[in-house]
Write a structure and sequence with these properties.
single chain
Length: 719
């Protein structure tokens, strides 16, 4: 049997414990809510488990799930709980924010938390009560609010809000005390187990998560936010479109049904109207025979159709409709009273005057939104003598639709928060954060191209991410792991080959320099010493911050490696002149000076042959211009100041000092003090003053070079 990976086992344990904690939170919410509801108390404590889960874990998704699931289950025995799922989810979010800022450890923040959640709950409950139930709710809070409103002569909504605020403040105050007690009782390692780990570590490791959190903040438009925003907009539009279609279908069906009932009502009423008695009914009214009986029958017909608000009989005349019967018990029109037509009827008047049937008419007047049905009453000759009208109120349908929309929005809002939090969590863990971590590691890998140790550390870091999403991102991650490992191995091999090549090149440079030096009978170790002095000077310039744009690690390496070639042009000088023991003539000195141009030509040919070798360019500069002077009186071109290449100015100091401090066939070695004095005397005229300055500041290193290569003379210099 294969043993399970301990890390994987731990991750699944974390998931199990967190889910178990959320289940316990849901159970506590339901238990308190059910018991207190059965006892008839106004406090349900249906958020005590939610706040506990949020305070212990400090993560949104489990807290929001606890809140919404609790509200859904509580709605089976107390239906309004479903409307508060959105509010409970908001409370979960606020609790998590306070928990992450250690809000449950400070009294001031705890009081602030209690006030905030109390305000949110009381305002939400009051709005829901007013919009959905009005004063028809029979709950204990509603009854107390109604009693308070009657006693204090205050508006019912205000009374309900004050009552709710006091009760919710009492409830959340008790819950906060319970949370403080719970947090003090629970072991610290138990709380740390939840707060130091993540809700789901199955996808990425803790190393990856720490690295992702450190680098993800630099991204201006994170992928998970874009996807979440797109999801929210799409979902809202879809819900709105679906809701609009559903509401329209419901309204149309209701309209058809009400029109059908109104038609049935007027058709039945027509049968009870005697066309021959209409004139008598108008002339004598209630005094006419059968008038009261006919009105009673019409009233009974209207009562049998609950959708019909008004049922009446009228005659169409030029000035308006003359009422014959009106079944309205509260404010009926008198027999013979004329009422002007509403503007909605004007286009139907020609047909009404001709006694024709008309389509249902919708009108909006002081009586409300009405749907009116007219049915003609004809005599034996087929002539229309009057119309039976029925008004159906559509206000109830509109009001129901408004209430329905609010209820749906309240119910869906809670589920929306759950879905959105899950989307953010899921996309963040499986897409945005892993991609961000991979990109950051790859960036570091590319930036560390010149540091083999850093490359290998980055390979270890990338492999430590342990992304296990099981999708294309994991495939990308695995491919990048293989690529970076392979690339690191290739770079190591290339680096070894490059180092070997550089070693061989340096050996060839030293060999060439030694060949030139061996022709000079009295320049013992000149190449080695000048190279050492060049290194001392360039490091001193770097240390003091001189020429920062020029002195880079690459420049320093190139100058030190190229220093042995500064006199390569002497290979063109004859031994007679090169080793002459006495002073050179003007003609001989002119020939000697050509070693600078000869060295330049030799190295330019080498540069054209070996492209890209930058160190040879500095070697060319030193060979060509190391005898130029700061004041412009040098050779071969008479350059001055910083026009002279920096590498040549450095070599000038090193070359002259070695010539002064070393014996020649035409002179003995100068004492150290005199050699240094000559250098200082030439600072600003022959030499770059900064190069002389750093050389003088490094005398201890200079003496070590002299001791190494001059033997006894070096000992004397060192003293």
């Amino acid at each position: 049997m294969k043993s399970q990976d301990p890390s994987t086992y731990g991750k699944y344990n974390i998931r199990f414990y967190r889910i178990s904690l959320s289940v316990c939170g849901v159970f506590i919410n339901i238990l308190f809510s059910f018991v207190l509801h059965k006892l008839g108390l106004p406090l349900y404590f249906d958020t005590i488990g939610t706040i506990a889960v949020a305070a212990i874990t400090g993560y949104l998704f489990p807290a929001i799930c606890t809140a919404v699931v609790s509200s859904v289950i509580c709605s089976f025995f107390y239906w309004p709980a479903l409307y508060l799922s959105f509010v409970n989810a908001i409370i979960a979010i606020i609790t998590v924010a306070f928990a992450r800022n250690k809000g449950f450890k400070k009294i001031g923040k705890l009081i602030l938390f209690t006030l905030i959640v109390t305000l949110i709950s009381s305002i939400s409950a009051s709005i829901i009560q007013y919009v959905i139930y009005g004063q028809a709710d029979s709950s204990l809070i509603a009854r107390n609010a109604l009693a308070f409103s009657s006693a204090a002569s205050t508006p019912y909504f205000l009374s309900f809000y004050v009552t709710s605020f006091l009760l919710y403040f009492l409830q959340y105050g008790f819950i906060c005390l319970f949370i403080i007690l719970l947090m003090s009782i629970l072991p610290k390692n138990f709380l740390a187990f939840f707060t130091d780990t993540n809700w789901n570590q199955r996808i990425v490791s803790e190393t990856a998560r720490q690295y992702m959190n450190a680098n993800h903040s630099s991204i201006k438009h994170p992928l998970h936010k874009k996807i979440t925003l797109t999801f929210i907009i799409t979902s809202v539009l879809l819900v709105m479109l679906t809701g609009a279609i559903a509401l329209r279908l419901y309204f149309d069906n209701s309209k058809v049904e009400k029109t059908k009932n109104a038609n049935n009502c007027v058709n039945l009423a027509v049968d009870f109207i005697d066309p021959s008695r209409v004139d008598d009914f108008i002339k004598y009214g209630t005094e006419a025979a059968d008038y009261l009986e006919t009105r009673r029958l019409l009233t009974k017909i209207k009562e049998s159709y609950s959708d019909v608000t008004y049922l009446y009989v009228l005659r169409i005349e030029e000035n308006g409709g003359r009422f014959i019967f009106d079944t309205d018990d509260l404010n009926p029109y008198s027999p013979g009273e004329i009422v002007p037509f509403d503007k909605e009827f004007k286009k139907f008047l020609p047909d009404l005057f001709e006694g024709k049937e008309i389509d249902p008419v919708e009108s909006d007047n002081i009586l409300g939104w009405m749907l009116t049905i007219y049915k003609p009453v004809r005599d034996e000759e087929g002539k229309t003598v009057c119309y039976v009208g029925a008004d159906v109120s559509m206000d109830y349908v509109a009001g129901y639709l408004g209430s329905f929309i609010i209820k749906v929005l309240l119910i869906m809002a809670g589920f929306f928060i759950v879905i959105i939090s899950f989307t953010i969590w899921s996309i963040g863990n499986t897409m945005s954060y892993p991609i961000s971590a991979i990109a950051s590691c790859v960036d570091r890998f590319s930036e560390a191209a010149e540091d083999q140790e850093m490359l290998e550390d980055n390979v270890k870091l990338i492999r430590s991410l342990e992304i296990k999403s099981g999708d294309e991102i994991q495939r990308l991650y695995d491919a990048i792991c293989r690529m970076t490992l392979s690339q690191t191995e290739h770079i190591r091999d290339i680096r070894r080959l490059s180092e070997s090549t550089l070693t061989m090149q340096d050996g060839l440079i030293i060999t060439m320099a030694d060949m030139v030096e061996n022709r000079d009978s009295d320049t013992g170790a000149h190449v080695q010493k000048t190279s050492a002095y060049v290194k001392i000077i360039v490091e001193g310039l770097k240390k003091k911050g001189y020429y920062p744009q020029k002195i880079t690690p690459k420049f320093m390496s190139d100058v030190v490696r190229s220093a042995p070639l500064h006199d390569v042009g002497k290979i063109n000088i004859s031994d007679t002149i090169l080793n002459k023991p006495g002073k050179l003539t003007d003609e001989e000195f002119a020939i000697m000076k050509t070693h600078t141009t000869a060295g330049k030509e030799i190295l330019e040919k080498a540069i054209s042959t070996v492209q890209g070798e930058n160190y040879l360019k500095e070697a060319r500069n030193m060979a060509a211009y190391h005898h130029e002077r700061w004041d412009g009186k040098g050779y071969p071109e008479g350059l001055h100041g910083e026009v002279i290449p920096l590498s040549a100015r450095i070599m000038a100091v090193a070359d002259v000092f070695d010539a002064l401090a070393s014996p020649r066939v035409y002179k003995p070695a100068f004492p150290l003090e005199k050699a240094l004095a000559i250098l200082q005397e030439g600072s600003g005229s022959q030499f770059d003053p900064k190069c002389v300055e750093v050389f003088m500041d490094s005398l201890s290193d200079v003496k070590m070079v002299l001791r190494k290569y001059n033997g006894d003379n070096g000992e004397n210099f060192a003293e």
